[in-house]
Each structure stands twice: as C-alpha cells, then as structure tokens.
Amino acid sequence: MKKPVNPTLEDVARVANASTATISRAINTPDKVAPETRLRILNAIRELGYTPHSGGRALASNRSNTVGAIIPTMANAMFASGLQSFQEELAIAGVTLLVASTGYDGKHEFSQIQSLITHGADGLLLIGAARLPETREFLALRQIPYVVSWCYKPDPKILFAGFDNHKAAYGMTMEVLRQGHRKIAMIAGISEGNDRASNRIKGVKQAIRDFGSPAKLLKVMQTPYSQTKGGDAFANLMHKPTVPTAIICGNDVLAAGAIVRARQLGIAIPRDVSITGFDDIDIATTVYPTLTTVRVPQRRMGRSAARLLLELLTTDNKPASIEFETEIIFRESLAPPPS
Amino acid sequence: MKKPVNPTLEDVARVANASTATISRAINTPDKVAPETRLRILNAIRELGYTPHSGGRALASNRSNTVGAIIPTMANAMFASGLQSFQEELAIAGVTLLVASTGYDGKHEFSQIQSLITHGADGLLLIGAARLPETREFLALRQIPYVVSWCYKPDPKILFAGFDNHKAAYGMTMEVLRQGHRKIAMIAGISEGNDRASNRIKGVKQAIRDFGSPAKLLKVMQTPYSQTKGGDAFANLMHKPTVPTAIICGNDVLAAGAIVRARQLGIAIPRDVSITGFDDIDIATTVYPTLTTVRVPQRRMGRSAARLLLELLTTDNKPASIEFETEIIFRESLAPPPS
What we know:
The structure is a homodimer.
Chain A: H1 9-16, H2 20-28, H3 35-48, H4 56-61, E1 66-71, H5 80-92, E2 96-101, H6 106-118, E3 123-127, H7 133-141, E4 146-149, E5 160-163, H8 165-178, E6 183-188, H9 195-211, E7 216-222, H10 227-238, E8 246-249, H11 252-265, E9 274-276, H12 283-286, E10 293-295, H13 298-314, E11 322-324, E12 327-329
Parallel strand pairs in A: 1-2, 1-3, 3-4, 4-5, 5-11, 6-7, 6-8, 8-9
Antiparallel strand pairs in A: 10-12
C-alpha cells in the first residue's frame, strides 16, 4: 500500500482494520480498548506517521500555552535549577509551567501524565528513560510531544536533552582509582524504576572491572535520596570488618549526609575516607569539607529541554537530541588514601 | 431587602443593578468589565453570600480532583517538605497536585492562579498574605476555595494554616539579646510583595526597640534568598566600621551562605560573630558550624492546609484557620558575644 502524504484517521482505520470510532477511543480513552487492538492501532499510527492534530503547526493554534513537567520529587533541590531554567525559557515564549511529582513511582508517573494532559498541557518534560509500558503506549497513542532529561542514550525514537549517567559515574570512579583507592564502596539511590540510579551503579562497577585487580568494590548500598539515609549508610559501611578508603555516592544529598555523619562519628574526611558526590547542587559547597562531585549542567540542560519542546509544539521540525557532557569538580572531600 | 437563602445569579444582578450577562462576565472574564462595575458586583456577591456553584457539596460533584499550589520558588528546598506533606495528604483523598511558581512576583502569581483555574484546579494553596488587588478580586469573584500558608493573622475572611512570622522573628531576636548581644545586624529577604520577609524584619526591629538601649540594630540588608547573596551580604556587614556580634538571617539559605563565606574569610562562627537562621530545613545541619534557627512545622502545616482545602471542597463547613507555633532549635552558630 502506498503511504499517504497526510495520513487521516480513516487511513489509520483501514490499516489497523478497525472503525474510526475505535481509533478515537484508543487515542483518547485507551482503557476502553482491548490491548491487542490498541497495539494494532499503535502500529498503524507509527507505520503511517499519523498525528492526531495533523502536524505541529496546526497544533500551535490549539495550544493552551501550558507545559507540564513531571519530576521524581520536590523534596530536595536535586531538580531545582534545571527546572528553574526550563521555566524561565518557557516564560520567554509566554508558556506557563505546571509541575507534578511522582515520588519515584512509575504508576504515579503515569497518573500524573494523564492528569496534566487532561488538564490541557500541550507537552511534557519527563525525567529519565525508565517508564512503564502503559505509559509509553499512552504517550505514543496520544502523540504527546515530550522531551526526556537527566539522561541520554542514542535512541532516535526519544528526544533527549540530557547526559550519560553511566559515563559520568565511570569517569568519577576512574578518578578515584587514579588517586590510589583500591577498597571502594558505593552509596547509591534505589535503582528499581530509576535508570539514572541504576546507570550510575553500572558505571561504577564497569570502571572497577576495567581497572582490574587489586581494585575492589566492597559493597553497593541502595537507599532513598535523603541526607539521613546517606548518613545511615555511611555509618553502616564504616562498621564493616573491611572499611573502604573511598565511598562514591549516587548523588550530593547522600554524600552530604555521609560527610555530616562522619563529623558526628569523629571520622575525618578525606583523611580517613574520601567521599564523592553527583549533581553539584548548592549543598556540595554548604557541607564541610566541601564535596568533590560530578557537575551536571542543569541550567543549560533545562534551557535546551524547553527549546526542544517549544520546537516540537510550534513547528513541523524533528529536532535532534542533545547530549551534555559532565565534569568532575575537585574540592576537599577526595584525596589519596592513607598510606 | 430580605436576604435569599439560596441566592441566584438573578439575585446578584438585582442587587448589583447589572444584567446577569455582566455578572457572568465579571466572574469569568473580569478584564472585560469596568472596575467600578466589578466592585459593585463583588459587593453584591459578598452581601448575598452567592457562590457560582451553589455550595460546596454541589461543587464536589463537578470536581476535577486536582488542586494547585502556587509557591514563590522551586529553586531551593524552602517549601519542599511542606509541599510534600500537602501532596501526600491530598493523595490519600485521590487528589492530584499541580505546582506553579511565581519568582516572588505578584503579577506572575496572578497569571499562575488564572492558569491553574483555567486548567481546572478545584482549589488552591497560596503562600503568604501579600497579594495584588486584582488577584484578591479574582479569587473573590470566582469564589475560588483556597488556603493561605506560611503566615498567619487573625483575619476571619482568609483561611490560614500557618504561623506568625513577626512573633517568630521577635522570639529569636529576644534570645539573641538574652545571650548578651547588643550590636545586631540582619540579612533579610526582599520585603517588597513578601509579607513573610517584611514581618520577620518588623519582628526583629520590634524586639530590639522593646529591649531598649544599649541594644542596637546596626543594619538590615535585604537580598534575594540565595546562599551566594547571603555570603555577599555577610562579607559586606563584616567590612563596616562597626561590626555586629550577631547576624539574624531571614532564612536558612541566607544563614548557610553567611557561614560558608565566614569560613572562606577566616572568621570563626560563633566565636567572632553569631549567626541565626529561619525555617530549619536540611541545610541547617549540613552547614558547619550547624545553625541555630527557628523551626517551622512544615510537615504539620502542609498536612493541615490539605485537610482544610479538602474540607472546603467537599463539605459546606466553614473551617477555622490554624495557627502553628514555631520554636528555636539551638545548635552551634549562636553563642554569647566575645567578652
């Protein structure tokens, strides 16, 4: 069959062998359509390149000028400056930002996406690439314009404005090894349903494997991102028979918690044990000793995500993903191990 | 005229001496109605106790199960834990939270309120009592259910779940005086359009006035809430001919910035100068020396705000405002002045 230039709902119906009413239902109320039918319709939509609103420019006239961001948590400043610059860039274009949070729960993410779309958001900013199948399907069926940030992978189906968590964690671990550490531990975030956390763990493991003997990863502890939890994990690691000389933390919140707890326990950082972070948010310099960490270019990333999303919403362009580089910021908490 | 039990749009039209179409316009698109007409209609609505949706219980059936929170900033963790518990409490009732931020700008607050209401929010959480006249009028005309938090005053027209900023700042200042300080300075937030910031300044001034000679408020510096700005203000104060022995900060972010800068300048806290904060967020214990500060019961406050709002949305009750007490948390950054 010849592929139509401007595929219509009728074209989708023909290819999917379903009525136009069923196609509409699959797009607007997917719960009311059997999964196998939805899959057939989704494949037809993809094959034909059908968009429910016949192209970005047409969509532009229907816009509510509101965009949604769905972030894992508002409970600390991890996403704050990226979100702030995302909002500032949208404001220049006269677009309002509404934010919802998921508590790192995939089901919540899905319901928040549905809620934002129901309330008229034109497009979305999502964090990370791990997503429930039903969420992916909803995004695809509804042809919702969205940008994924805080991660990057070479996947042409998804539009990223992010960075490679695996590579960044790998680089920090190699630096820790280069400074002479051989007994290393990690305090990581919960990896389930969080690709940033799991890729940081994989990056650390890979670097230690690549470096080879006698470098050793003593332990990876997974814990929620809070200073108290980071402190608890630190205390736990320092009570084991074999004590690490360096602890790589999954983010700055965990690392700050470890440093504060070290002071309370009378353990000197970095003399007794080195600590590294990830993110380079404000607390990296609030804490004492100050934190050696991976700098994520949050402001540039947020701005780019906004520009990509606006391009999706207002033009017929297919913009390309942007990968940002991270860098290691050297401060006081990392030093060679005690000799 | 006898006041009708269930006032209708027609009753409002009669009392306001306007057409029902004009009443509708004043409620839904106030910009299209002359200010004096709007005022007349607003007075009629208040006089009659008219609600556009004829009472809370009726409203309940039209609910979109979404509530909006409009906070000054997402750029640091100042509102994070209160917002988190607000959201958790709403989630129990199956209500979704959407958040927008204003950048401490009254005009932005108004446009974000309009945007959330347009996108179907059933009710709102607002921060602070300072509000543009047009915003107040919009809230009143549209009869939008809302709760105000992070402040409290005995005003029966507004539903508060908050605390008295003046009283809290007064209490902290009296404690600083009690410990022997007589040369005091303040690093405050920007007071314009921010009643929390201005009431904290007033509380400090009042306490020093009430204490009397020889206690002296050397200087109040107003600066945006950022650690860098707090550090800059601290450096500025410590370079003046008369140096304070205690600096009261408008919040923990400013205080943490001051403590970090003191370390960089070789000034010992609290030996050379004492520092106090306000909020008791995480950085109060991340920073070293740890911060003596005013604890705001954010979690209880957020939970109560959610309960009050849900009560407004689902019942015909008229719940009463709740005032929370703050307390001083003693840590390392406050000590008697050098003798």
